[in-house]
Design brief:
single chain; six-stranded antiparallel sheet; five-stranded mixed sheet; 19 strands; about 10% helix; about 35% strand
């Protein structure tokens, strides 16, 4: 159980623990600035069936940033759930370092389907039944103006013991996203814990071999933190069903950094009626 004080926020915890959290945060900051980070997003374009022209001219279906690519660069074709690209003869577009004129783009397979022209990189994504093109700019202004993310001081009190309660049968929860859609996601169970003697519960999603993924909201949202909630990874429980929720590692969703991200939002079950004064605070104005 965590006991919070009413006085101002100060760092609290063993130096080793504080150092580990700071190291984790620094690694996250570096990740945001990498090629597959969120700071370089420069566009998100939804495709219609058939041909979709692209380039920097305003008469294209997909208008890329001015001065970064030819006025008319080519076209994307959405056909039967598959995305193809055809490049105009007067432009050099590379795939894995080799010039291409046309190819199929596998949605959400950024490693194998990314195309590059100068500082621009783009690839196909799929969200529900929609197909789109996500654009990155490796010389985006966000990369050069980024100075990190404000956060609450590290406080070991916010590393809270929790009990994992597995779902007795297959269970799905409704997870809304920033696009206004709701996806039904499988939840293996929930975590129960206490803050100041009050009991709380959070539904988890699969996050990988060793972790669960949490999307949660709390009473700091819209004040100190992003109004649409934050993300958190939690280690899977031990043989006794126990784990720890470390709110010092609560982090902002991609939509905080770019209007071109498609973020899931907290399910209704994960709206905590308490202030979680730990982890990352709001960055900029959000989206």
């Amino acid at each position: 159980m965590i006991i919070l004080t009413a006085c101002g926020f100060k760092e609290k915890g063993e130096p080793k623990y504080i150092g580990e959290i700071n190291q984790w945060h620094n690694k996250r900051i570096e990740g945001l600035k990498k090629e597959q980070g969120w700071l370089n997003l420069a566009g998100l374009f939804w495709l219609k069936d058939g041909k979709n022209s692209f380039g920097s001219s305003s008469d294209n279906d997909l208008v890329f940033p001015k001065g970064k690519i030819n006025d008319h660069a080519g076209e994307f074709i959405l056909d039967g759930g598959k995305v193809f690209v055809k490049i105009n003869p007067d432009i050099t577009v590379l795939h894995n370092g080799k010039m291409i004129t046309e190819m199929e783009l596998k949605p959400d397979d950024e490693d194998s389907s990314s195309l590059r022209h100068a500082s621009l990189v783009w690839f196909a994504i799929k969200r529900g039944d929609q197909y789109g093109i996500r654009l990155r700019d490796m010389k985006h202004d966000n990369l050069f103006g980024f100075e990190g993310i404000d956060r609450y001081p590290v406080n070991s009190d916010w590393k809270i013991k929790a009990k994992f309660n597995p779902s007795l049968a297959e269970k799905k929860i409704s997870v809304p996203n920033i696009l206004g859609r709701v996806n039904e996601e499988e939840s293996p169970g929930n975590l129960s814990f206490e803050i100041e003697g009050n009991k709380y519960m959070l539904e988890v999603l699969e996050g990988g071999e060793n972790d669960y993924f949490l999307i949660f909201a709390d009473k700091t949202n819209g004040e100190d933190t992003y109004e649409a909630g934050r993300f958190l990874s939690v280690p899977k429980p031990d043989s006794s069903g126990n784990t720890f929720i470390d709110f010092n590692k609560a982090y902002n969703p991609p939509c905080v950094f770019s209007e071109f991200a498609t973020c899931p939002m907290p399910p209704m079950q994960n709206h905590l009626q308490v202030k979680i004064t730990a982890g990352e605070k709001m960055y900029g104005k959000g989206h």
